[in-house]
């Protein structure tokens, strides 16, 4: 959706058609009316493009809202997953505690099993020593002293047998319990670890999706910024076009007034010349008549009858010619040129920079009409002036001023104080950025020319 900044134009390559030669008022007005219509056309085109950019910006805002909703949903899912992971980690910690407890119990059981193993081994060894592994019941019975002793011996044998059986059953039960507890713990721990791994993978996937959404949002915000900047340029251009329209109207009045004054001056000069010619012709006639009369009255002296003719009148000095050549502007401020016109820092520097310490005044480089005097985000305090010189329209720009001493629509003369050199707008250090455009100023600055070729 990236769009090129269309050069909105104040493209007024005005050919005023010889104002210096004092064309008739109707010709001058027609010329300027044509240029004014061109300005209005450019203004309409600019407004249409502005509407298109506003529509694009609305689409971007709508897409941003959708992406923002997706990001919010993903963030909620990530938060829930984090909670689940924390819960699983708590369960795993508890299971580990259970494992530690079970390990202690298993250790006790294993100690008991080891003791029984030893006891059982001793019993087996004893049985083996007593004749092959079985108790000789007859020997026990026949060795009885009396019946009571016999009963005691029988009961003792039964008790030993029961005890051996119990030991064996407990031994088997303990071994089974150890195996079951170990299997239970290992199964539970493996399950929790699997669940945690799934949650961590889910969180990883959600983080990846959120990263994509963040990247998309960043791209949309960048595009929105560019659209805003473009709209800012278009708005400034629209304002300059409106101001240019007023300036051209003012130039029409000024050109008509200059043409009227020039015509009056021409008529006055012609009348004066005719009057002077008539007076000279009358004086010559009177001198001739006097000479003729003198010739008649004095026939004795032929030499005296030839009176010298009246001296011829001296010719009027020719009017000073209109300035010619390209050196038609005064340097607007004192100080050295610190940066010239041309490529700079990978871009185009469409003017020159003049820098000087202290409060350096900046003045109009030529007479004209203040097209626009305002504060720009890029130019800072800036003054645009429209000039008509030898039938050609020029626009001069005075940027980064500390202050502005003229207002939009004001007529200025060459040398009029515009403000003081400053460091406002996108500027690095106190200086005057000065541009000359042959025609009108436009956003692409396609009419810019090297000021050094036009300064006196």
Automatic annotation (TrEMBL):
Residue segments, region Disordered: 39-66, 289-333
Low complexity composition-biased segments: 289-309
Residue span(s) of domain M23ase beta-sheet core: 348-441
Keyword flag Signal: yes
Pfam families: CC_PcsB, Peptidase_M23
Keywords assigned: Signal
Domain Peptidoglycan hydrolase PcsB coiled-coil positions: 106-181
Superkingdom of origin organism: Bacteria
InterPro entries recorded: Cell_wall_metabolism_enzyme, Dup_hybrid_motif, M23ase_b-sheet_dom, PcsB_CC
UniProt protein name: Uncharacterized protein
Source organism of the structure: Guptibacillus hwajinpoensis
């Amino acid at each position: 959706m990236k769009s090129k900044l269309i050069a909105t134009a104040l493209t007024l390559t005005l050919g005023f058609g010889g104002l210096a030669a004092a064309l008739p008022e109707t010709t001058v007005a027609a010329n300027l009316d044509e240029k004014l219509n061109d300005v209005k056309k450019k203004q309409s085109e600019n407004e249409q493009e502005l509407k298109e950019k506003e529509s694009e910006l609305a689409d971007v805002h709508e897409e941003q809202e959708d992406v923002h909703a997706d990001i919010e949903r993903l963030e909620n899912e990530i938060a829930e997953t984090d909670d689940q992971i924390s819960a699983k980690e708590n369960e795993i910690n508890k299971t580990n505690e259970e494992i530690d407890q079970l390990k202690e119990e298993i250790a006790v059981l294993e100690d008991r099993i080891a003791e029984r193993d030893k006891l059982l081994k001793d019993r087996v060894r004893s049985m083996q020593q007593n004749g092959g592994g079985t108790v000789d019941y007859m020997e026990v019975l026949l060795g009885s002293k009396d019946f009571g002793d016999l009963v005691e011996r029988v009961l003792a044998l039964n008790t030993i047998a029961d005890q051996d059986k119990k030991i064996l059953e407990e031994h088997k039960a303990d071994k089974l319990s150890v195996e079951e507890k170990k299997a239970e713990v290992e199964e539970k721990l493996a399950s929790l670890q699997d669940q945690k791994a799934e949650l961590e993978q889910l969180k990883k996937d959600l983080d990846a999706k959120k990263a994509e959404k963040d990247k998309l949002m960043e791209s949309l915000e960048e595009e929105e910024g560019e659209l805003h900047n473009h709209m800012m340029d278009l708005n400034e251009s629209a304002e300059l076009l409106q101001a240019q329209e007023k300036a051209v109207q003012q130039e029409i009045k000024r050109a008509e007034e200059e043409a009227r004054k020039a015509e009056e001056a021409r008529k006055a000069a012609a009348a004066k010349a005719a009057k002077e010619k008539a007076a000279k012709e009358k004086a010559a006639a009177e001198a001739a008549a006097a000479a003729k009369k003198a010739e008649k009255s004095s026939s004795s002296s032929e030499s005296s009858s030839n009176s010298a003719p009246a001296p011829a009148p001296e010719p009027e000095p020719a009017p000073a010619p209109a300035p010619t050549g390209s050196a038609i502007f005064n340097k607007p401020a004192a100080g050295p040129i610190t940066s010239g016109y041309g490529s700079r820092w990978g871009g185009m520097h469409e003017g020159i920079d003049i820098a000087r310490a202290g409060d350096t005044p900046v003045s109009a480089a030529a007479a004209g009409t203040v097209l626009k005097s305002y504060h720009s985000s890029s130019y800072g305090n800036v003054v645009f002036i429209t000039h008509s010189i030898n039938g050609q329209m020029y626009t001069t720009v005075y940027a980064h001023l500390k202050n502005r001493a003229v207002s939009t629509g004001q007529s200025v003369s060459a040398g009029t104080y515009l403000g003081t050199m400053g460091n406002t707008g996108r500027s690095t250090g106190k200086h005057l950025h000065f541009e000359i455009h042959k025609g009108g100023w436009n956003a692409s600055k396609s009419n810019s020319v090297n000021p050094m070729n036009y300064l006196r």
